[in-house]
Amino acid sequence: MFLKRVALKREEINDQRRYPFHIPAIRTFSELDLKKNVTFFVGENGSGKSTLLEAIADQCGFNTAGGGRNNTYELHASDSALGPYLRLSWMPKVTNGFFLRAESFYQFATHLDEMAQEDMQTYGSYGGKSLHDQSHGESFLSLFANRFQQKAIYLLDEPEAALSPQRQLALLKIMHDLEQQGSCQFIIATHSPILLGYPGADILSFDQGEIQLIEYEMTDHYQITHYFLQHRERMLEQLFSEEDEE
Fold this sequence. Notes:
Blueprint: E1 3-8, H1 24-27, E2 31-33, E3 38-42, H2 49-60, E4 86-90, E5 97-101, H3 105-116, H4 136-147, E6 152-157, H5 165-180, E7 184-189, H6 193-196, E8 202-205, E9 212-213, H7 220-230, H8 232-245
Parallel strand pairs: 3-7, 3-8, 5-6, 6-7
Antiparallel strand pairs: 1-2, 1-4, 8-9
Helix pairs in contact: 4-5, 7-8
């Protein structure tokens, strides 16, 4: 494990009413100790999990639109408002890694194509061909299988967006192989109950107005999915009857 602590430099914030400091989980946040090689951020959209992950990526020196330290391309509104107010504590510090941002992965793939016009070896870390020549899911797995290496930190924002359940399992295998070598750290914001099932990981919930450790079986992702699979017809009947009443 490399990144040990994330702290908020609250004394430098002039107006805590502005974005993103008004988000409840960010407003109550002071510092976070990372104790596992794999940490998940969970919570509803708007809870602050992706905001904090993006800010960590910013302070790691990664492109906040997605990529590593050497991926310098511009994307509108990709700057992190929270990043300058974070302090990261390392032991030891690493500079290798990657920030995957599912919503801007298309732009990252285009950036690689532009780099490859000058050096075809660019594709070497991504399966040997343009990510645009692969399906969305294939391109994600190609990134994971070829770009992810040892002694690095990987920040993934909703990687399940392009992955089928089978490919989510493939990602878990890649993570496990790297983590077992003791030289990789993952911080992942996700809604996937499959990914959250990774053994021994810490799950941090951003709901309820604060960041708190939560057990896998206590996450909404597990409970709702489990209930749906066990009581699909009853759940859908209740859901549709509520819509009819409206």
